Every structure is written in C-alpha cells, then in structure tokens.
Amino acid sequence: xxxxxxxxxxxxxxxxxxxxxxxxxxxxxxxxxxxxxxxxxxxxxx
Length: 46
Known about the structure:
single chain; alpha+beta; three-stranded antiparallel β-sheet
C-alpha cells in the first residue's frame, strides 16, 4: 500500500532545468545557457 502511495506522488513531481553557473531556468533541450553561455545544465526533480 505504501509503495503505491509513493508511486502516485512521484507522478506529480516537477522537473526543472537550470544553469548551474547563474541559475537561469532553461528548456529541457537547452545545451548552453542563453544568459551566461555555460554548458553546465542541471536537472532537478522536485
């Protein structure tokens, strides 16, 4: 039962992609940050 509850909650999580250098939020397909040109893009599941 607990496992099903956890699985259901995980389906509603948000995914954020942002530049690790300046924090600008970017689209998932972004390769380089448009604000600072860094190629270090992070993906966070909330």
